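Thread amino acids onto this structure.
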């Protein structure tokens, strides 16, 4: 995405599109998203925005159980989309981040959402 007014517009469209269930369901069928469950893609997006966020915080934001989120994050890690390591300062916590493949998947997903949302408003 870009900086400035275009970024603001893109962010607004992304937020609006993510709140439109029918649009989101349709986007999950696109080739860039195949193979991921909706909650896994939502977790990937949440981790892209707040990699330091804890499991409970992200689960609450996504309205899913923490155990469901942990399963999704483990699947994302197996697919090489996120790193998921113990926090060296506190072994009870996990340090997560997007891999380059995860960043690419988020970019693809965001691009599809923005294109679809723009088309809906033209």
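Threaded sequence (122 positions):
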């Amino acid at each position: 995405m870009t900086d400035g007014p275009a970024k603001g517009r893109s962010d607004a469209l992304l937020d609006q599109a993510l709140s439109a269930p029918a649009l989101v369901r349709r986007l999950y069928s696109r080739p860039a998203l195949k193979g991921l469950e909706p909650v896994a893609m939502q977790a990937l997006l949440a981790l892209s925005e707040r990699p330091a966020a804890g499991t409970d915080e992200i689960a609450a934001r996504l309205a899913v159980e923490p155990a469901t989120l942990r399963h999704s994050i483990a699947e994302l890690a197996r697919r090489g989309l996120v790193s998921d390591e113990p926090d060296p300062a506190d072994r009870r916590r996990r340090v997560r981040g997007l891999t380059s493949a995860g960043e690419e998947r988020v970019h693809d997903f965001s691009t599809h959402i923005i294109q679809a949302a723009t088309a809906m408003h033209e």
